[in-house]
Amino acid sequence: MAMKSAWITLIGRPSVGKSTLVNCLCGRKISIVAPSPQTTRSTVRGILTEERGQLVFADTPGYHISDKKLNRYLKTATEAALEECELVLYIIDATRSAGQEEREIAGLLAPLAEKLVVAINKNDLPEASVPAAETAAAEAFPGRPIFTISAETGEGTEALLNTLFELSPEGELLYPEEFYTDQDPEFRVTEIIREQVIGRLRQELPHAVYVAVEDMESDGKGEKLWIRAVIYVERESQKGIVVGKGGSGIAAIRKASQAEIARLFPYRIYLDLRVKSDPKWRNRDQLLKRMTGN
Ligand SMILES: Nc1nc2c(ncn2[C@@H]2O[C@H](COP(=O)(O)OP(=O)(O)OP(=O)(O)O)[C@@H](O)[C@H]2O)c(=O)[nH]1
């Protein structure tokens, strides 16, 4: 089967659930955000790569009713972004009634109808009025695929994803392999740090190291990524070996890990690394599960 690939522009009112949906589809907590290859294309929110191909989910610069001048600028930028992509995923919030803004978006999307897929989101909420949203969408975009989903619970998102792949043209990967992962990014980060520790201290610390990422947070602009991680050793006495004289060991591990992580995620990386001893870590289910990546 030939590989498919598509640049998919997300459009929808603020807080409609774009980030939640991308994270749900891409199956991880943070989206790997790459710098835009073209100026009119805005931020990449997530990249999903599977055997069947690659989908790149990107934002339009935003579409809000606001100050007239700004609105005009956004409209132009949005139109350019929409023209360049292969598919447009229009997300509607089922809990909000369609207003002026929704009608404007519909007008904007009318000429691009052949690229359009509609997702009506938040159907898990009791206040969602899905039939009304479905009728409005079917009237505005006759014949286009419409899905009712919950980005929060994942309901309906698999069918949506299948259609996105089906409608994508055949093509090569848009981003090189290192820009995507179907592995949990946290797991990759722990592997990088563990490799550094083991590489340096193999003699002194056979098997006695486990790394846990406690927190990973991006600035939302695709520029900075903060990571807090802990290196666990079994015995208190082993802590000193990792930390090294005057902290030189941990500093070297941190520096090398940070450089390695930066190759994986196109962010500026801020890595906070600590060493703790935990004699029982081997017995902890959760830790072992994470260690084996399951
Ligand atoms: N119950 C429920 N909440 C959702 C769903 N999708 C998104 N949300 C919530 O809606 C809020 C906004 O979601 P985001 O994913 O941040 O929305 P967004 O469109 O990316 O927001 P902007 O980038 O500000 O435009 C968050 O509190 C989400 O948890 C859903 O399917 N069900």
UniProtKB/TrEMBL annotation:
| Membrane topology designation | Peripheral membrane protein
Q: Which UniProt keywords apply?
A: Cell inner membrane, Cell membrane, Cytoplasm, GTP-binding, Membrane, Nucleotide-binding, Ribosome biogenesis, RNA-binding, rRNA-binding
Provide the GO biological process annotations: ribosomal small subunit assembly
Q: Where in this chain does the record put each KH type-2 domain?
A: 201-277
Among its keywords, does the record have Disulfide bond?
Answer: no
Q: Where in the cell is it found?
A: Cytoplasm; Cell inner membrane
Q: Cite the residue spans of the region called G3.
A: 59-62
Output the Pfam families linked to this UniProt entry: KH_2, MMR_HSR1
| Region G5, residue ranges | 149-151
Q: Which InterPro entries does the UniProt entry name for this protein?
A: G_ERA_dom (IPR030388), GTP-bd (IPR006073), GTPase_Era-like (IPR005662), KH_dom-like_a/b (IPR015946), KH_dom_type_2 (IPR004044), KH_sf_prok-type (IPR009019), P-loop_NTPase (IPR027417), Small_GTP-bd (IPR005225)
Q: Where does GTP bind?
A: 12-19, 59-63, 121-124
- CDD domains assigned: Era (cd04163), KH-II_Era (cd22534)
Please list the residue ranges annotated as the Era-type G domain: 4-170
Q: Name one GO molecular function term.
A: ribosomal small subunit binding
Region annotation G2: where it falls in the sequence:
38-42
Q: Where is this region: G4?
A: 121-124
> In its keyword annotation, does this UniProt entry include Cytoplasm?
yes
Which GO cellular component terms, listed alphabetically, does the Swiss-Prot or TrEMBL entry include?
A: cytosol; plasma membrane
Q: Where is this region: G1?
A: 12-19
Function per UniProt = An essential GTPase that binds both GDP and GTP, with rapid nucleotide exchange. Plays a role in 16S rRNA processing and 30S ribosomal subunit biogenesis and possibly also in cell cycle regulation and energy metabolism.
Q: Which family is it part of?
A: Belongs to the TRAFAC class TrmE-Era-EngA-EngB-Septin-like GTPase superfamily. Era GTPase family.
Subunit info here reads: Monomer.
HAMAP family per UniProt? GTPase_Era
Name-wise, this protein is: GTPase Era
**What is the protein's species of origin?**
Sediminispirochaeta smaragdinae (strain DSM 11293 / JCM 15392 / SEBR 4228) (Spirochaeta smaragdinae)
Phylogenetic classification of the source organism = Bacteria, Pseudomonadati, Spirochaetota, Spirochaetia, Spirochaetales
